Amino acid sequence: MLEGIEDVGALTAGPWIYVVVAVSVLLDVFVPVLPSGVLVITAATAAAAGSGAATGAVPDEVPDILALTLCAATASVLGDLVAYRVAWRGGARLDRAIARSRRLTAAQERLGAALARGGGALVVLARFAPAGRSVVSLGAGATHRRVRDFLPWSALAGLAWAVYSVALGYFGAQWLGATWLATAVSVAALFAAGAGATYLVRREPSA
């Protein structure tokens, strides 16, 4: 177990982990395959080790749990805004690209209806679904939704996702020890939440 703690701590020690997490979270709105959630969970596992979640020696340098949460949440919102502005200015080329995809078109329509009636919970759900954040942010910009309708929900989505991801890594380490097993179980829980969010987002809205 101690070896696992040291391995996790070695990968996440030092202030550079915040930069790596921020860049990964910011960019995964454009490249959804980036493992930003895995990075956040791994760093949170190391933070749990530094808090004394496991017995024995722990790494001297571990991420601060609050700073990690704020870093991930802020980067999520900034990434959403960048995608929103890119799509807003995308013009006819982006509109044609979206129109060629029935999935994107349908998602865009659901998003517009949800935001129009104040149901921005869709934005929060989509943050957990694979590529859902990309569809929502680009869709909101492409349809020229008002930023005041989109930004508060984006902020709530980013904070909810960051808190959930950090909590998985932190409490997973508390229960299972700061080991790779704890990280794997936490990542599996993150993927399970993504599958559930995908199911809810794809459901037809009730009449």
Automatic annotation (TrEMBL):
Residue ranges of the VTT domain? 53-170
Q: Which domain of life does this protein belong to?
A: Bacteria
InterPro entries in the record: DedA-like, VTT_dom
Q: How does it sit in the membrane?
A: Multi-pass membrane protein
Transmembrane stretches in the record are: 12-31, 38-59, 65-87, 150-172, 178-201
Compartment(s) of residence: Cell membrane
Give a yes or no for keyword Membrane in this entry.
Answer: yes
Give UniProt keywords alphabetically. Cell membrane, Membrane, Transmembrane, Transmembrane helix
Q: Which residues form the signal peptide?
A: none
Similarity comment: Belongs to the DedA family.
The identity of this protein, by name, is DedA family protein
Q: Say which species the protein is native to.
A: Streptomyces coerulescens
**Biological classification of the source:** Bacteria, Bacillati, Actinomycetota, Actinomycetes, Kitasatosporales
